[in-house]
Specification:
With about 375 residues, the protein is an alpha/beta fold. The chain has helices spanning about 1-15, 35-40, 55-65, 85-95, 125-145, 175-195, 215-225, 240-245, 245-260, 300-315, 355-360; strands at about 30-35, 45-50, 50-55, 65-70, 100-105, 155, 205-210, 235-240, 265-270, 320-325. It has a single domain (about 25-360), classed as TIM Barrel (Alpha-Beta Barrel), CATH 3.20.20.80. Helix 4 (about 85-95) links the parallel strand 4 (about 65-70) and strand 5 (about 100-105). The longest helix has 21 residues, at about 125-145.
């Protein structure tokens, strides 16, 4: 009787319908956009963690990072951030068990709120052919990622597209319905490409704005997008406090967006200075506009980042799912000074700052 009872219990348990089992919790994803690593390494730059020189992806794993992002440019100068380089980086990340997000700029160079220039190869295409180019290029890259055994966790269809993308055809900077219809068609082409390529993999799609602390503009934008019924999965935001408002503005905005649109939210770009860069030349940010109570020191940077993570994790309905620090690894090398030196999470010698550990996931 005992053996029979155990056998019946075993089969009853193992044959239990899947939907009666407790679903697995989605892990909090944390790391950074580390697209600059190949250029830094090519210039002789090195990274150190706890006093030891490390391969940067091994270092990330040791620090507890589980998420990285790579931007993709179509035909960039020097080959940095093209398809081939992205595939190589994805292998390095996956070898350490780190999830990858792809960030399509749909440009040969930087795309952001101030510029969304088409790739040179697409400049004379009709709108219908531009839609097809977005689909074909996106599907080609995602399929190549899957084929080499490194499927992306998430794909951004465009980068900081407050004013639309692929200008002038995809520009959307007013209330003109026709502008939004065109932008929606381009976005839908990229989203469809991801879904058609994913096969057995569930790859999330993201729409990315730069309005981390600007609730009024973010709501205006997403209301227009939702009117077009674009079927994306997640919202991505950038938050740079010297451009996008205070921590209070940021918290108010993300909490409202999470409640209003019922979408999971990732902060896919954030940064804070650990000091001033005393070397001459261009700087991404080298000013004095910082959050009160968070000085421009390594500890101040770490404290600021910890507060951002706290806000994300406290979003309504657990909608805050992750964070990506922007360019944490963009450090100077013997061949080239970085304009981002004072904003990275490593100092000018490549030594890990406290923020590297703050970005580590603590389970």
């Amino acid at each position: 009787m005992t053996k029979l009872f155990l056998a019946i219990t075993f089969f009853a348990t193992t044959l239990m319908p899947a939907d009666t089992k407790k679903p697995m919790a989605t892990p909090f994803l944390s790391g950074g956009d580390v697209s600059e690593i190949p250029e830094v390494e090519a210039g002789g730059g090195k990274y150190f963690y706890k006093g030891k020189h490390e391969d940067p992806f091994v270092l990330m794993k040791k620090a507890g990072w589980n998420f990285v992002r790579f931007r993709i440019w179509n035909q960039p100068r020097g080959g940095w951030c093209d398809k081939d380089q992205t595939l190589k980086l994805a292998k390095r990340a996956h070898a350490q068990g780190i999830e990858v997000s792809l960030d399509f700029h749909y440009s040969d160079w930087w795309a952001d709120p101030g510029k969304q220039n088409k790739p040179a190869a697409w400049k004379d295409l009709s709108f219908a052919d531009l839609e097809k180019a977005v689909y074909d290029y996106t599907k080609d890259v995602v399929s190549a990622m899957i084929a080499q055994g490194t499927p992306p966790y998430m794909v951004q269809v465009g980068n900081e597209i407050l004013g639309g993308m692929l200008w002038p055809e995809g520009k959307a900077s007013s209330n003109d319905p026709e502008q939004w219809r065109r932008l929606a068609k381009l976005l839908n082409s990229g989203i469809k490409a991801v879904k058609d390529a994913q096969g057995k993999h569930k790859i999330l799609t993201m729409i990315h704005l730069d309005r981390g602390g600007d609730n009024k503009t973010a709501v205006w934008w997403f209301d227009h997008l939702h009117a077009q019924k674009v079927q994306y999965d997640t919202i991505g935001l950038s938050f740079y406090p010297w451009w996008h408002g205070s921590l209070a503005d940021f918290e108010k905005n993300v909490n409202d967006l999470a409640t209003r649109y019922k979408k999971d939210i990732y902060i896919v770009e954030v940064a804070y200075p650990w000091g001033k860069d005393e070397r001459p030349g261009p700087h991404v940010y080298n000013g004095d506009k910082v959050e009160p109570g968070y000085p421009q020191t390594p500890d101040g940077q770490a404290k600021f980042l910890a507060k951002v993570i706290e806000i994300i994790k406290k979003m309504p309905d657990s909608r805050g799912k992750g964070i990506l620090y922007w360019a944490p690894t963009w450090i100077p090398s013997p061949k080239e000074h970085s304009p981002y030196t004072n904003l990275a999470t490593f100092d000018e010698k490549g030594l890990a700052l406290p923020s590297v550990d703050v970005l580590g996931v603590k389970n």
